[in-house]
Amino acid sequence: MNLLRIKAVAKKELIQIWRDPLSLAMAFLMPVMLLFIFGYAITLDVNRIRTIVYDLDKSSLSRELIDKFSASGYFTVVDHVADQKEIDRYLDSGNALVAVSIPSDFSEKIRSGRNAQLQVIVDGSDSNTATIALGYVSAISEIFSQRLEGRRITPVIDPRLRVWYNPELKSRNFIIPGLIAVIMAVIAALLTSLTVAREWERGTMEQLIATPIKTPELILGKLLPYFMIGFIDVILSVLLAVFMFGVPLKGSVFLLMALSGVFLFGGLSLGILISIVAKSQLVASQISMVATFLPAFLLSGFMYAVSNMPEALQVISYVIPARYFVTILKGIFLKGSTLSLLVTETVLLTVFGLLVFGIANRKFKKRIA
């Protein structure tokens, strides 16, 4: 391969990008915007659950119990209702997710040493939130009961729990690294999916075909500018993750950048392949979105564990490069993983990139049909 010809194509592509403000905006602003939007919108933490209270007892003990719910930070008491029908209205309208009903004999039973009942109604349309909310209610009730008894119940088994890698159990710490992988998968393919198709639509491909440039030189020349742009996007995303969202970066920054480069090569090669096959910017952009966003979002393990998926989907996920990049990012960010622990993902990403680049090289023909 001739480096001068590769450099000439790369320079031409850089000039084309510079003359197209839309491409520049998509290249630099889109990843940042997506990270902001999804980073703040997607969370698995359940807190400030809208709660209403139906207190028939109106005693100091019932008020103390309600204060326990409010002080926990998990529940936000939005109203005190005076009728059972109002509970149905709040839950039906979605203005509350939890209703706590305290019977009139609540404090009397507690003072007499009997078991006092507490009715908790939870909106189960969101099963995940409902399950977590019920767990919070059980914990608060148990702590309240122990305080009233003036003693701590010693269990038969005393587990000593320790959470590694994400001790605060913040969902943002594992969502943001996975989100970077999803965004870069989309951006990488979307950027290069327009390059070859643009040449065909504008009638400049005939001029390129007439030159002595070889197919690998042409593809590499078109990849290089977008590789630099993608690398800048990765750096911006990592900086936002660490300094804006507070995600800890425990591993090697150099390793993170190196493996990101391997992933970018595969993603950009996929975009080039789509552009070669489609020969239309509109069709190429649509194919790249469908081929990258949905698989990366749903089948990469970003949001849902691959091991919990049906076996057919687990098999399909092996051809999704974002699956391996999600593992790499979470490992380097949260665990401080080294290359020896990520060698499988690195090899598979490298194989994917070389395979897609090879297919793109064979698909592109230097002749007019």
In short:
This protein is mainly alpha-helical and 369 residues long. It has 15 helices and 4 strands.
Question: What attributes characterize this protein structure?
Answer:
369 residues; mainly alpha; abc type-2 transporter like fold; 4-stranded mixed β-sheet; 6% strand
Please describe what this structure looks like.
The chain folds into two domains: 3-42 and 170-363, no CATH class; 49-149, abc type-2 transporter like fold. The protein is elongated, with a radius of gyration of 28 Å. α3 links the parallel β1 (49-55) and β2. It is 66% helix and 6% strand. The protein contains 15 helices and four strands. By secondary structure, the protein is mainly alpha-helical. The two termini are 25 Å apart. The chain has a four-stranded mixed beta sheet with strand order 2-1-3-4, with helices on both faces. α7 (171-192) crosses α14 (321-335).
